[in-house]
Design a protein that fits this description.
The chain is α/β, with parallel strands linked by helices. The protein is 44% helix and 17% strand. The chain has one domain: Flavodoxin domain (Rossmann fold, 3-Layer(aba) Sandwich), CATH 3.40.50. Bound molecules: flavin mononucleotide (FMN). The site of flavin mononucleotide has 19 residues, from helix 3, helix 4, strand 5 and strand 7.
Length: 237
């Protein structure tokens, strides 16, 4: 009788151990380490979008890295042909606009991911205004731009390129209102600039282009995906 009791206890312990062991193999690994969670918690996407393309880029980053996101709203009406012309005019003459929120609390973020359409070879007026009105000292900054064409290809042109190519390259690089210097003026440490082309491109292709930057983004920021595989929003989920 005692023997039977002993063997039952042993079996119970064995079954318990086996369950724990199996759980270790079966349970999915956490998607991100606690260190990665910490940096994801400190990251904020700040975006403006007039026609939704930069919003698509922002959404796909948010969905895949589970970071906070803030939309900058332009209080000027930018819709339709008049809105387009007003936007072009404002950017041509480096004019600022009224935005909402004007000075959001950024204190808890160490990494800002800025997403902006390009207007006349510059970041859009609402994002330029955001950079003017907010200090980003001691913060790392990643910039995503969207535009009809691949503006980043100009950066690669050498001094043997045509005058117009060199002019546009230097404009993007050095102009006091150019993209990089403008962001630097805010005190931020710019670590990366990614670009997404949007002309004659489907939403799916915008998402795919954005996802292509994720490996480099992870490498250079310490962000970790919060999904097992990159989510192609609306295509595989
Ligand atoms: C006023 C204005 C100026 C633009 N200037 C440029 C430009 O210089 N180069 C370019 O490739 N695309 C330019 N575009 C196209 C936008 O950058 C592109 O469509 C962008 O992806 C739109 O993003 P959104 O949908 O988030 O507003 C311009 C668009 C507007 C409205």
């Amino acid at each position: 009788m005692k023997n039977i009791q002993f063997s039952k206890d042993t079996k119970l312990v064995f079954v318990k151990k086996l369950t724990v062991l199996l759980f270790c193999f079966i349970a999915p690994p956490p998607f991100s380490s606690s260190a990665a969670e910490a940096i994801n918690d400190e990251a904020l996407i700040v975006y403006y979008s007039r026609t939704g393309k930069s919003k698509t880029v922002s959404d796909v980053i948010k969905r895949n890295f589970c970071v906070d996101m803030l939309e900058i709203k332009d209080l000027k009406d930018r819709s339709g042909a008049w809105g387009f012309m007003g936007a072009a005019f404002d950017n041509m003459f480096d004019r600022y606009t009224e935005i909402e929120p004007k000075q959001p609390d950024l204190s808890e973020y160490s990494l800002v991911i800025l997403v902006s359409p390009v207007w006349n070879w510059k970041m859009s007026a609402p994002i330029r205004t955001f950079l003017k009105d907010n200090r980003l000292d001691n913060k790392k900054l990643v910039v995503f731009t969207t535009a009809n064409i691949d503006i980043k290809k100009y950066d690669k042109f050498g001094d043997d390129a045509s005058f117009i190519k060199r002019f546009l390259r230097d404009y993007l690089r050095k102009s006091s209102k150019g993209m990089q210097l403008l962001a630097k003026d805010s005190g931020a440490d710019i670590i990366r600039h990614y670009h997404v082309e949007t002309k004659n491109v489907t939403r799916k292709q915008i998402i795919e282009q954005t996802i292509r930057h994720f490996a480099d983004l992870k490498l250079n920021t310490g962000l970790n995906l919060c999904t097992s595989l990159p989510l192609h929003m609306g295509y595989n989920n």
